[in-house]
Amino acid sequence: LSIYKACWVGGSCSGAAVLAAVDDAIHDGVDVLSLSIGGAGPQFPGTLHAVQRGISVVFSGGNDGPVPQTVGNALPWVTTVAASTIDRSFPTLISLGNKEKLVGQSLNYNAAMNNSGFQDLVHVQSCDTESLSLSNVTGKTVLCYAPAQAAITPPRAELHSLINRTIEAGAKGLIFAQYTVNLLEILTSCEGFMSCALVDFEIAQRIASYSKMTE
Q1: Burial of 61 by CB count in 10 Å (0-12 exposed, 13-18 middle, 19+ buried)?
Q2: Distance (Å, rounded) from C-alpha 101 to C-alpha 99?
Q3: Contact 168, 144 (CB under 8 A)
């Protein structure tokens, strides 16, 4: 095992330092070169020299996503890897007024609140501050479903602030739609304030259609 220091405090990894580390690894005759550096940079094509010498080069895919086209280091001569998720689900039933039952993901912290009966449903698109202020969401369950916005806003960066905005607006429930429902740990922000559930776009579209029919 050979270790080459190329990054410093604050996550700074200069191109010159990475290239020097790659050159040293080639000179030392390593078999596999693993670079856990997320962002693409001008130094990465330098790894082609390592591959030409029979060295397998492995990069991390970065921490963005799951919005499409956010994988970093997708060079054709390297192997790009990323962490997966847990093999468990936390299903919760979402019951609509037409007796349709849909399945989302949730962590239930307040059983009394979650079983308090039906609440009015309102679709507030992206659930930004302006949209919430223009909609009467007090005491209602809010559906936040805006596919166009989701394509450019990573869900992990958005959900926490969205929950806070929805609570401040007086809502009693939140259904948040995104590419992934693997954001359950962020739902701790809902604890004691409102019921929250995560759904994928297919389920969200069915809920949005129901909401439109009942307007």
Answers
A1: middle
A2: 6
A3: no
For residue 104, what are the β-bridge partners? Answer: 92
- The pTM of the full predicted model, rounded to 2 decimals, is 0.63
Strand 101-105 with 91-95, pairing: antiparallel
Residue 148 burial class via C-beta count within 10 angstroms: exposed 0-12, middle 13-18, buried 19 and up: exposed
Owner of token pair 């989701």: 150
N-to-C CA span, the chain: 64
Cα separation, 153 vs 111, whole angstroms: 32
Residue type, 73: N
Total count of residues recorded for the chain: 215
Q: CA 53, CA 41: separation in Å to the nearest integer?
A: 22
Q: Which two tokens stand for residue 55?
A: 């060295």
Residue ranges covered by each domain of the chain? 15-81, 91-213
**Class of the domain covering 91-213:** alpha beta
C-beta of residue 141 within 8 angstroms of C-beta of residue 169: no
Three-state SS for 13?
Answer: coil
* pLDDT per residue as tens digits for the range 93-142: 899 989 999 999 987 655 444 455 668 999 998 899 999 999 999 999 99
Backbone angles phi, psi at 150, to 5 degrees: -65, -30
